[in-house]
From TrEMBL:
Organism the protein comes from: Gambusia affinis (Western mosquitofish)
Name the record gives this protein: Alpha-N-acetylneuraminide alpha-2,8-sialyltransferase
Family statement: Belongs to the glycosyltransferase 29 family.
Pathway in which the depicted protein is active: Protein modification; protein glycosylation; Lipid metabolism; sphingolipid metabolism; Sphingolipid metabolism
InterPro entries from the UniProt entry: Glyco_trans_29, Glycosyltr_29_Sialyltrsf, GT29-like_sf, Sialyl_trans
Membrane topology, record value: Single-pass type II membrane protein
Principal subcellular localisation of the protein: Golgi
Compartment list: Golgi apparatus membrane
BP terms from Gene Ontology: N-glycan processing; oligosaccharide metabolic process; sphingolipid metabolic process
This enzyme's EC code(s): 2.4.3.8
Catalytic activity annotation: a ganglioside GT1b (d18:1(4E)) + CMP-N-acetyl-beta-neuraminate = a ganglioside GQ1b (d18:1(4E)) + CMP + H(+); a ganglioside GM3 (d18:1(4E)) + CMP-N-acetyl-beta-neuraminate = a ganglioside GD3 (d18:1(4E)) + CMP + H(+); a ganglioside GM1b (d18:1(4E)) + CMP-N-acetyl-beta-neuraminate = a ganglioside GD1c (d18:1(4E)) + CMP + H(+); [alpha-N-acetylneuraminyl-(2->8)](n)-alpha-N-acetylneuraminyl-(2->8)-alpha-N-acetylneuraminyl-(2->3)-beta-D-galactosyl-(1->4)-beta-D-glucosyl-(1<->1)-ceramide + CMP-N-acetyl-beta-neuraminate = [alpha-N-acetylneuraminyl-(2->8)](n+1)-alpha-N-acetylneuraminyl-(2->8)-alpha-N-acetylneuraminyl-(2->3)-beta-D-galactosyl-(1->4)-beta-D-glucosyl-(1<->1)-ceramide + CMP + H(+)
Organism phylogeny: Eukaryota, Metazoa, Chordata, Craniata, Vertebrata
Amino acid sequence: MLVRCCRVKLSVWAALCVLVIGWFYVFPVYRLPSDKEIVEEVLGLGEAWKKNQTGIDLYRNLLTECCNPRWMFAVTKENAPIGKVLWYDGEYYYSHTVNDETYSVFVQEAELGVRRSRGTPDAYLHSVYRLRTTTPLKPLKKCAVVGNGGILRHSKCGRDINQADFIMRCNLPPLTKEYLEDVGNKTHLVTANPSIIEKRFQGLLWSRKAFLDYLKAYGSSFVYMPAFSMKPGTDPSLRAYYTVTDSSSNLTMLFANPDFLRNVGKFWKARGVHAKRLSTGLFLVSLALGMCDEVTVYGFWPFSIALDGQPISHHYYDNILPGKWFHAMPEEFVQLWHLHKSGTLRVKKQMIKKIDLFMHAANYKFVGTSSDAISE
Ligand SMILES: *[C@@H]1O[C@H](CO)[C@@H](O)[C@H](O)[C@H]1NC(C)=O
Ligand SMILES: *[C@@H]1O[C@H](CO)[C@@H](O)[C@H](O)[C@H]1NC(C)=O
Ligand SMILES: *[C@@H]1O[C@H](CO)[C@@H](O)[C@H](O)[C@H]1NC(C)=O
């Protein structure tokens, strides 16, 4: 009896083993380098970085082919006419059919210029790169994509960031005086997730003044909202649009095109990023790689390196962690790191110096992320 029982158990185990082996054969486990390996590699490379025009051109072409950032990153009157069905990219089975009301809030491509700034912080040269021209567009020169990672704290990257021609930031980060030295104060495009409108500004159902006052920090930049990623995000996004356009604000509201977000997601998935959703930062990096000649990224460091048991904060301004499995930030970082190594974009070196400091501490951990989801 006992023997028979064991035999049954054995065969069950054997069957399980075969199943598991078969599973791994069909779906090989994607091995991510460990945090330690990454940090060591980052250190090994040190300060050396050389721009690789071949890599830059290659990625611009790849991204233009898959996702066409210049034409598609926002919904416009041209790419989303009345009657067009916009499928939400962050959930299944929901769509929005463009109607008179939504059509009226979409920008016209001709209005979509990129305001450049040069020289003194306030000298905005309103030279406009039209998205629609007959001649091939010259790419923007220097772009900065600023994540919100705690690694930016005490980084003194502010001046460097401010010198870029086009500065993108994630999810309405605070730009108050205390952070000026570390993150700068100029912005040309800032993303805003509908959830922040809900959580911090009562969904804009009551007073709108706090929201408008808060937005003053972004001057006359674009505010980029994923209005068609999750169904509950559409109404708050429209309210944000009306709040801004009914005021004397100089901001331009843009709604992310769900087709663009979906295609960018596929692009990175094919390159090993297995997150359910990309982080806002990687969407902006994709946009920048498609439109700019030189891309520098700041504040992307999804590792928490403990110094005397003290982790770096999650954001440069707070330490609130996002949902655990939503993003695959280390995977995303590996992608950025590959691009950095090949000279296609630059992960800013101030960060590396800082890691150097932290390397003296032996125990660091993989925790948290550097920017939030675009659709939350
Ligand atoms: C430059 O980029 C191309 C395309 O990504 C790559 O094949 C090449 O190895 C890179 N060159 C260097 C020196 O890294
Ligand atoms: C950025 O900060 C500098 C120094 O405080 C200030 O002179 C400048 O007006 C600020 N620029 C913006 C766009 O807020
Ligand atoms: C918008 O820009 C104009 C011209 O630069 C400026 O005078 C005005 O104060 C700005 N409005 C707001 C709300 O910042």
